[in-house]
Amino acid sequence: MKGIKIIFLTILPALSNALTFNCMYFDKEVCNYNCQYYSETCKAVNMIITKPNQTVNKIFGLNRDKDQVHVLKIHDQLIRYFPMNISSFFPNIEVIQIWSSGLKTLSQKDLAPFTQLRELSVSRNEIENLSSDIFEMNQNLIKIDFSRNRLKHVGYFILKPLKHLIYVDFYQNDCINHGSQNGIEALTKKLRKKCKPTLEMMSEDLTRLNERVEMLELIAAEKSHRNRRCDSDLVPLDTLFPSIFIGSENQIEN
Ligand SMILES: *[C@@H]1O[C@H](CO)[C@@H](O)[C@H](O)[C@H]1NC(C)=O
Ligand SMILES: *[C@@H]1O[C@H](CO)[C@@H](O)[C@H](O)[C@H]1NC(C)=O
Ligand SMILES: *[C@@H]1O[C@H](CO)[C@@H](O)[C@H](O)[C@H]1NC(C)=O
Predict the structure, then answer these.
(1) Given a cut of 70, is residue 69 above it in pLDDT?
(2) What is each CA distance from 9 to 2, 3, 54, 97, in whole angstroms?
(3) From CA 86, how far away is CA 75, in angstroms rounded?
(4) Which residues 6+ apart lie within 8 Å of 19 measured at CB?
(5) How many C-beta atoms lie closer than 10 Å to residue 234's C-beta?
(6) Rounded CA gap, 113 and 237, in Å?
(7) What is the Å distance from ligand 3's center to 102 Cα?
(8) 128-163, pLDDT tens digit by residue?
């Protein structure tokens, strides 16, 4: 009896993050966007994820060749956090759709394993913040849809790594109601103006060397904008980023 108890105590914590992912498989489907790469699909059924860091250790569903699955659809489920380890079952995912499933956050660690990702559609969820580095490992993306979320803060550099983008949708969010119909550049400007990153997000960007100079310029622009408005309620940026700020003024003068 004693032995059994000990086994349970040591195994339970390890198992508590384990998750079975339930797939209903579809063959090639009718689609309305760039069909060439649509093919076998796993559509999630009966999924409930309410805690972060849930790790998929089993896929339940019809037995298919998992290498052939290129599309992952999570529609009308409850997935507050993106589950980990899906890509080790489906290594060739090119399209991820998460619709109306209560997703609250999405970050680089969630998407990084999907290096072949071409389309990401995360419409009608509850995402509030997107970091600059979210797509750094998904440079083949051509379509992004974050419409109908609760976006408030978006990193300044979010679209920068994506050289193949042709379609972006940020309609019906708290901070923005626009897409890329006037071009990606115009949308980037709108995002930067309307969905300013939080100070935490800015500080994170500053730790990544590539973006440092451009980031400092944006902070300097924000500072002068605030000065022009004489907005005494706002905490001055140079008290928040003291050492950095001295550097940036020099950099911009040079
Ligand atoms: C989830 O895992 C990450 C590291 O992968 C860790 O930083 C974070 O604290 C974890 N969150 C929870 C709620 O366990
Ligand atoms: C991740 O998935 C693989 C199968 O593709 C599985 O062998 C492994 O146990 C899973 N990892 C965890 C931590 O569950
Ligand atoms: C988004 O950022 C704000 C401000 O830092 C924070 O209060 C909020 O909890 C964040 N939301 C999520 C879902 O992380």
Answers:
(1) yes
(2) 11, 10, 19, 38
(3) 16
(4) 49, 54, 55, 56, 57, 83
(5) 12
(6) 36
(7) 15
(8) 999 999 999 999 999 999 999 999 999 999 999 999
Does ligand 2 lie within 6 Å of residue 55's CB atom?
yes
Residue 78 identity: L
> What tokens appear for 205 in the block?
């960007």
Q: Which two tokens stand for residue 210?
A: 């590539």
Q: Which of 107, 127, 129, 132 gets mutated to test ligand 3 (max ligand atoms within 8 A of its CB)? A: 129
**Cβ proximity of 159 and 184 under 8 Å:** yes
CA of 21 to the centre of ligand 3 (A): 28
Measuring from atom 2 of ligand 1, which residue has the nearest CA? Answer: 53
Average pLDDT, the chain: 83
On whether the CB atoms of residues 98 and 125 are closer than 8 A, the answer is: yes
* Measured CA angle at 29 (ends 120, 55), to 5 deg: 45
- Tokens in use for 96? 């991820």
Tokens 């071409």, residue located: 118
Question: What's the token pair of residue 245?
Answer: 């700020």
